[in-house]
Amino acid sequence: MPDLFVTMLKVHQEIYERSGGFLGHRLLFGMPTLLLHTVGRKSGEPRTSALTYGKDGDEFLVVASKGGSPRPPAWWHNQHADPNVVAQIGRTRHNVVARSVLPGDDGYDRMWAKMNKINRGQYAEYQKKTSRPIAIVALRPTD
Question: What does UniProt give as the signal peptide span (predicted)?
Fold first, then answer.
């Protein structure tokens, strides 16, 4: 079953990217999805990740869960190395600055509750699978 889910996520991202954002914003289970465009910290190559997102004031929120893996997702490392990234919502691209918010940081509990609700409780389940604190990444538009 996990392989089927991973395949569904990849197909969703492919549709989102190939349609230029015309399709994909709410394609997967109705969840709001953005495309996060980063640059690979080692390769220097452009990378794109489809991520469930929420809003907190002016910021977009995404969660570096990687399904509860012991290691954070590659996109988290990429935005950590260069926080000037692009968030695409539908067909609109926003230049944003990314910052990680961890447990104990100001606003984390509020952001976590908001994102966990959007993702129907799955982030709490992912946190149970790993001892690493799962970061929330706040994306602040610069344009």
Answer: none
Three-state SS at 84: strand
Helices (H), 19-134: 74-81, 108-118, 122-129
What CA–CA distance (Å, rounded) separates 46 from 39?
A: 5
Residue 119 phi, psi (nearest 5): -95, 20
pLDDT, tens digit (0-9, with 9 covering 90-100), for 82-130: 999 999 999 999 999 999 999 999 999 999 999 999 999 999 999 999 9
Q: How far apart are CA 51 and CA 132, in angstroms?
A: 20
- pLDDT, the chain, mean: 90
In angstroms, rounded to a whole number, what is the distance separating the alpha carbons of residues 5 and 83?
Answer: 29
Place of tokens 């982030």: 123
